[in-house]
Amino acid sequence: MTDFLDIAVVRIQRWLSRAPHLRGRRGASTLIRKATAAGEVAPLLVGWEEVAERCTEAGQIDGVIPLRLNTDDEERIAQLEKQLVAHLRALMPAASFESKRRSGTSWLDAQLRTPVRTEWPAPTAEWPLGKRCDWCAEWSANEQVPVGSDGKKALCIDCRQRTAHAGYATSGHADLQPGTERDLLDRWTERFPDRPMRVPDDFPELARLGETDDATHLATIHADGNAIGQFRYETHRALRKDARLDFDLPGAIQHATWSALLDGLQAATDPDADILPVIAHLVGGDDVLLSLPAHRAWTFVVELQRGFSNYLTESLTAAGLTKVPAPSISAAIAFHHYTHPLSANADLADELLSAAKKEHFGSAPALAWHDRTHEGPQPSGRPSIRLDQVGAHWAELNALAGLPQSTRKNLAAIARTEDGQRLADQIKRLGLTEVVHRQVTDLLNRENPLNLANELGMVRWWRGDAR
Ligand SMILES: [Zn+2]
Predict the structure, then answer these.
(1) Topology (CATH) of 2-120
(2) Measured in angstroms, how far is the CA atom of residue 131 from the centroid of ligand 1?
(3) In what residue span(s) does the Cas10/Cmr2 second palm domain sit (predicted)?
(4) CA 42 / ligand 1 centre spacing (Å)
(5) Ligand 1: distance of its center to the CA of 132 in Å?
(6) CA dist., res. 61 & res. 2, Å (int)
(7) In this prediction, what percent of the chain has a pLDDT beyond 70?
(8) Which range is least confidently modeled, 141-155, 255-269, 344-358?
(9) Which residue intervals of the chain bear CATH 3.30.70.1230?
(10) Tell me, what's the pLDDT at 245?
(11) CATH superfamily of 180-392
(12) Which of 65, 331, 387, 408 is the most exposed place for a label (fewest CB within 10 A)?
C-alpha cells in the first residue's frame, strides 16, 4: 500500500467569481493553473524526495497537487503539506484549499477510498474593514493598482494577484498568459493548424459574436461529468482482473473534455471567423465553466455532451476496456445580458446543474437551462432534458426557430391558455404539422421539459442549422 496526498483548491467556482469582472476571473484561472503546474511545484519538492514526490499517475489537473508519499514520518509530511499550502496561499490569498490523504495499491485504487481530509479555509476579512476592494468588495483594499483600460482601482491582495496574472487576450496567442484560454488556443491550433484564432477580450465583444452586431446576451455554461466515481471504480476493477491492461484515466477524461469542447466550438464558430466565440473560465478534468454568445450555446452544448462520451468510449476501447461503460456529462446554461455579473450566473448554472444531475441520478447526459432576462433570477423548476430528447426534437426546434418572432410570441400565448384545439389549429395554419406531429396534450404537458412553451423559450436563443 502507498499513501497519496492531494492538495487541492476547492470551491473553485466561488473563488473564481469573487471578482465580478472578467479581468479578475481571467487572472484567477491563470493563477490556478500556475500554482499547481508540475513545473511550478517541482522546485518546492527539491530536498523533500524522501518525503514525497509528484504523483505522475494522477496526470495534470488544474487546481490539484497530487503527491505520492515516500515516508510515514508524519511530522515531515505535515511540514511539506504546510509549505505547499503556503505556496498556494501566496498566489491565491482568498481561495480555500483542502488536502485529502488516501492509501491504495495505486493512485486509481486510492481514489476509491474515503480520504482523510484537512481543510485550509480562506481567511475571513479583517475587521474593522477599511476601504472595500473595488473588485470583490469582500476584503480591504490596500493598494491603488492600474487595471487595464479601467484606470486605477483600489484592490485587496487577492484581486491584485488576479490583475497581475490576467494578461490581455486581444493581442492574440503570444500575449496570453498560460491559463485556460491559452490552453484552448494551443489545442485549437493543434487541431486546426490552418485556422489561427484569437479569443474575445471582454463580454460585450463576446456578445457581439452572436447573431447580430448589436447582440447583448450571453450563455454561462457549466458542465460536469456524471458518476465519475463509479467510472473510476469500474475501470479499476477491470484493470485488476487483467494485469496486461493499462489505462490512463485522468488523461482519458482530460482528452475527452477538451476534444468534445473543441467539437462544440467548431460547430458554434462561423467558417470564416478569426475569433472563437468563447471565454473559457475553467476547464479542469471533467469540469467546465465557459461563456458563449447566447445564440451559440445550444449547438455547443449538444456537441460537447455527444463528444465527451464518444471520446471516452474510444479511449476505453483502445485500451481493451470494452466492458467499462463511458460516463456522460451533464450541462446547465444560464442565459443573461452581458452586463449581468458572471458570478451570479455561474451560481445559477451550478444550481441548475446539481438539480439536473439529481433528477437523472447522474445516469444520463442531462441539460438544464434558465433565461434570466425572460424568467427572472430564480430557476423555474422546469425539469431538465436528456441529450437524446434534444436530438429527437432538433427538427422541431429548428422549425420553431425559423418562425418570425411575432408568430412565436403568438404561439406561446396560445400555449399558455392551454386550449388544445386552438393550438392544433394554429399549428396547422402555420404549416407545422409535418414537424410538430405530437399530441397537443404532450405539447401542453407542464411536466414535459420539451413542451411547446419550453421549446419556444429555448429557440429564443437558437441558431438554425442544417442538422
Ligand atoms: Zn478584492
Answers:
(1) Alpha-Beta Plaits (3.30.70)
(2) 11
(3) 283-359
(4) 29
(5) 8
(6) 21
(7) 95
(8) 141-155
(9) 2-120
(10) 92
(11) Reverse transcriptase/Diguanylate cyclase domain (3.30.70.270)
(12) 408
